[in-house]
Amino acid sequence: MIRYRRIAAVAAFVSQVATADSSGGPVCLPDGQLPFYQPVVVASDVDEVVLINNDTPTENRFRVRTQWLNGGASGNGLPRPWSANWYTGFSVPYPFSDFQRGQSTAANATVTQVQDARVGMWLNSTNTIQSDGGYYVPNSGYIDMGAGCWLQSSPVHPFSRTSSGLRVSFDLQVKTWAMSSGSNAFVRTDLFLRDTRSGTFVILTVHPFATSSDCQDPKTDLATGSSHVDGWIVGTGYDTPCNRITRRAGVFQSTPGGASQIFDFDVTPANLTHTIEQIYMWAAMNEIDVGELSLDPADYELIHFVVAPELYIPVRIDDGTNPLGGVPYDPFSFAQIGMNVGNYRVISTIPHVASGTAWGAKSNTERVDYVNSAGHLMQFWRGSGDWLEFNVSNATGAPAAVGNSHSFVSSGAVPRSVFRTSAGHVVQTWMYGGWNAWDMSGLGGFAAGDPFGYSDTSGAIRVLFRDSNNRLVAYAMHPVTGNWSREDISLGTPGAVPLLGEPTGFDRGDGVPYVVYRGNGGMGSARLYQHWLIGGVWGANFRDLTTHASGAVPLSDPFGFSSAGGRHIIYRASDGVRDAYESGASWQDVRLSDNCISLTPASDSRPVGFVGSDGNARVVFRALNGHVALLTLASTPTASSTTCTDLSQTLGARAAKGNPTGYLSDGVMRIVYTAKDDQLHEIRSSGSGWVHFDY
């Protein structure tokens, strides 16, 4: 479908400079750089955010624009006293006039709802534009409203790194939809890019909701798991052929009324280059001069992004009088759509797909390891301020991993990771004079679960795992000789029980290694068990820690670590998160999550601890609702003194899919996790608060 006149209108729009006379409402990019996270809008800012006029929106402010250069009403619109919730699916609180704006107070008239970090939009062609009592439709029959940001004077450069790209995501619900024959209603999201060399604009468009059968309809491509992108050359007034992008999450919708769902997609540098190549091919086939467009993604800057419902009404174009609009062929034609969008995010990131649990550690710089969907051990690391991705498996020739890897740092600030293969081999990777990998199975034994590695204060390294007979085994490196050996801890310990899960180990704080795990206490009862090494002997040092600390039945694998106040064995029980805590020779078992109202640990979650910037213990876990919860323990932990923070309330945070983990780096607490978008996320401390980061 060729959109000559609509694109001409867009060309006029992007050539304008954003106004600066209105500066209220939330800022899009507080630091002038991506990421953009849909901001919270309060009632006092609604008149700033919702625009019903021809003015170009204020630079770098979040706005909802309801008339696209169509010569309609001026001002910010009338408060709407009736509820539009049925049309949009977004239930704003009473009084409705605090959060709803429109041109008319009529019950079914076009309306915008804005509250917190969500926008509801109801678009009705029959009352959107009226001119002298007649039915007039602008922009060659296209009517829309859009929520987004305008950055013409202060663009950002999302492709500045060779591997970085754009990721766009939002929660979308299309609640109502109707149209007459020949008309159409759909939802689009646009990315406006400007070639800094030629000044030409390119618009990348994805339609997460569409019902037509032409190039706009992504349903025709569902079988391949990808979507269509229309690349528009504003300077020519022509559409380019359909293109493809990488869809991360969400299903292209074609029927209204469903629940809100996440819609994610990436635009990689390769995607953008391919789009430009397609533009040139299409232009050559049609003998059209599109001018000069760079094939280098680094030459493009992002000047505008928007999520918009849109209607199309077939119109007669009056080229002489109304070059951007017309009168419908059928006076009874109409189109309507109601929707809401929330958690709108536009970020510059390195595209990746993570699975399971990610672990972070500080060596010479921050490093976060994870296993990707291909079984490769991957690492994000910070170099010269920027985060970079590194494929450890490719660099070392390591075999494919199954399950979760575990990363740690040994003496000399050497970063290490361990994982197992499908054959049960334990593999260790480390960086010392370059990256190395070692299949440790030559030491004997096969892992039946995820291995766990750590280094103690003596410089010894241990890699713990549950073998195929559910026994506890360690591969240990002696700090003096540097030689590795196998330690059959279960076989050498009288009364040792079969493991029910994966072990964890840590230094008690005085060079004494501790190992804890969930074991079979008989009659199918799970209990916590502890081994410790003194004088080179494991066998005599073993206890039922559940009995010793008067604890509860563990439902998750434990996690052990030392803080300034003592030793902590963190686990999940039926009554929440608990800590089998040792100070001196005294043990106690403390319920920690009493203050986590509405943050019940998920049934498959594993709480993990680390030491905070004050030297005291912190514990993170994934709640039932996917939120990331942080427990802050006192030096001597008690139920009442432990505080609980919902880190998912941090702007930009996504619901967790994997278990979060935490580590301390230069006084900054960093919580890393895999979210439901299969991407790595970080929530880190900043002053007295927390900030979110997309890798």
Compact summary:
This protein has 695 residues and is mainly beta. 7% of the residues lie in helices and 44% in strands. The longest helix has 17 residues, at 269-285.
> Level of helix content?
under 10%
List the total number of helices.
Answer: 7
State the secondary-structure class: mainly beta
Mean pLDDT across all amino acids? 84
Portion in strands: 35-45%
Question: Terminal Cα separation, in Å?
Answer: 37 Å
Tell me, briefly, the overall form: elongated
How many beta-strand elements? Answer: 50
Uncertain spans = 1-22, 68-75, 213-251
Radius of gyration: 29 Å
Largest sheet: 17 strands, mixed
Q: Can you give a write-up of this model?
A:
There is one protein chain. Residues about 1-20, about 70-75 and about 215-250 have low confidence and may be disordered. With about 700 residues, this protein is mostly beta strands. The two termini are about 35 Å apart. The chain has a 17-stranded mixed β-sheet that branches. A 4-stranded antiparallel β-sheet has the order 23-24-25-26. The protein is elongated.
